[in-house]
Amino acid sequence: MNKISICAIASILFFFLIFKGKAQKDTLQNNNFANIYLDCNDCDVDYIKEHLTFVNYVRERRAADIHILVTGSETGSGGFKAIIVFYGQNRYANKTDTLSFSVKPNTSDEVINTKFVKILKIGILFFLTESDVINNCEITYHSPSGKTNQIQSNEDPWNYWVFHTNLSGRYNGESSYQNYVFGTRININRITEKWKLEFSFTNRYNETHYLYGDNEILGITRNYQFSHLMVKSISNHWSVGYSIYANSSSYNNIEYSLNWNPAIEYDIYPYSESTIRQFRIMYSIGPIYNNYIDITVFDKTEELLFSHSLKIAYETNQKWGNIGFNISSGSYLHDFSLNYARLS
Predict the structure, then answer these.
(1) What is the mean pLDDT of the segment spanning 300-309?
(2) Residues whose CB falls within 8 Å of the CB of residue 4, separated by 6 or more in sequence, listed in order
(3) Residues 228, 299 share a domain
(4) Most buried by CB count within 10 Å: which residue of 4, 75, 226, 340?
(5) Do 39 and 125 lie in a common domain?
(6) What span, in angstroms and rounded, lies between the C-alpha atoms of 40 and 119?
């Protein structure tokens, strides 16, 4: 064996022993740290690892001492409320905690990450009260400038109203064909623990030109839709309300159509767990009035019908994953053979 080979082997062994020793040293240093599994799709993991350093991060949830599940929902002001559930496992079995924080619309990523890491630290410390790590932790309170010992108001200046607008347009064309599509959508929502109000208006205009020699065929369709939903929570499980739907569509031969459906809904799980799990059963019944542009194939220019429907929806976000389904079925009351069923 020549000198070059011997030197190469010696170098490899030298670096291997150094790396192995350092790894063993790091492992010993981190033995008292809690192993955490961060179950979050949109979190800035690099930022969290940089600013939360008194834990071990694992990629297998069953190896974790703390499984952290992050869910959330949109707030009435258009911001976001994050729900963080801490599930204790292994050495912290049977310990669970839930924390949350809210951010306003247009909040920067830096502010969100800072708040998130602070909540993570608070939640993890709950599990470390009997650990040696707690001896190296300090708690600091920063009083708001000029507001020492004063309670701050968390009132929403928009009173939970959220407004969304959307404008869209599309053009396709060639030598014998042109198509213009324009659309508008306006959504107005207000969601609180007791009430849910939704208003939606949609307008769509579609114009098509076909050229055949010297002849031109023009096709225009217009569609207008308005929907409104009101739901009142009467307990942790029961809700009542109604929905209104109105539309006009030249494509569907509808001069105007009105649909009003009172409904009742039961959720097996309480509202407080809605970001973690839901199992909703809703029944609705109501009239539908259609006024047609042209006489239909059933020799109708207008008609009043009654329909009912049953909807079942299940959704859960757990530390083992997410699952959900929707089942809906309905029919006309005058003829039950005119029905539908959907599963998604």
Answers:
(1) 94
(2) none
(3) no
(4) 75
(5) yes
(6) 14
CB burial class (10 A; 0-12, 13-18, 19+) of residue 180? Answer: middle
Q: Answer whether 205's CB lies under 8 Å from 181's CB.
A: yes
Q: CA–CA separation, 88 vs 67, rounded Å?
A: 6
pTM above 0.90, yes or no: no
Distance CA(331)–CA(308), nearest Å, equals 6
> pLDDT per residue over 127-176, tens digit each?
888 777 777 777 777 776 655 555 455 566 777 788 889 999 999 999 88
Q: Within 13 A of 126's CA, how many CA atoms are on the CB side? A: 18
Cβ atoms of residues 95 and 85 within 8 Å: no
Distances (CA, A) of 112 to 100, 103, 119, 256: 12, 7, 11, 47
200 and 211 Cβ atoms separated by less than 8 Å: no
Strand order through the sheet with 177-191: 161-174, 177-191, 195-212, 215-233, 238-249, 254-267, 277-292, 302-318, 321-332, 339-343
Distance, CA of 303 to CA of 254 (rounded, Å):
11
Are 282 and 337 part of one and the same domain?
yes
What's the pLDDT tens digit per position in 246-280?
999 998 999 999 999 999 999 998 877 777 788 99
The count of structural domains within the chain is: 3
Residue 176 lies in a domain: yes
Q: Could you tell me if 271 and 328 lie in one domain? A: yes
Residue 20 lies in a domain: no
Whether residue 21 is contained in a domain is answered as no
Closest CA to 258 of 304, 294, 198: 304
Which residues constitute the domain of residue 228?
Answer: 158-233
- The reply to whether 122 and 204 lie within a common domain is no
CA–CA dist 99, 84 (Å, integer):
5
The per-residue pLDDT for 168 is: 93
Determine what percent of the chain is predicted with pLDDT higher than 70. Answer: 84
